[in-house]
Amino acid sequence: MTDTTEATDAKREEIKARIAAAEEREERRSGQSLTTTASEKASEAADAFTGFVKQHPIAAAAGGVALGVLVASMFKGPRQAAARGGAKAAGLAAIGAEIASGFASQLMDDASDLGRESVRKAGDIADTAGDKARSAKRRASHRAGDVADAARIARRETGKAIARAVGRR
What we know:
- This protein is about 95% helix and about 0% strand.
- It is mainly α.
- The protein has helices spanning about 1-30, 35-55, 55-75, 80-165.
- It is elongated.
- The model has no long low-confidence stretch (mean pLDDT about 75).
- α2 (about 35-55) crosses α3 (about 55-75).
């Protein structure tokens, strides 16, 4: 039995040590907020990029030119692209507004339907509650009548018993 107890105690101590280590890790992690961690990562990425550009300026410039040529080749000309892009953006905005309007209209219809359904259900619940209240009133009235009858009978019987007892003397 002592072997089992010692093994249990050893396991218990091991679990306590693990819990303590986890709590310490959590305290260290919670010392920094998510925004602090994110800003540190962004700063590190910017520093790494700046370091790469400083070490390889020609490669960075060549990469920038290549990226610019690639983007420029997608469009026929800067002015045409801007005009086409503006017209497309306006068309997409109109389509988006139409979709949003239709969606809002559908939501309003659904809300209206839900409101009517809720009113109907509330009416049904009120009717049911009224029916139950009337039924409870009838039962209470009937029971009150039964109690009153029992009280009259008890009073009459008690009066008779007292009259008999007094008459015997």
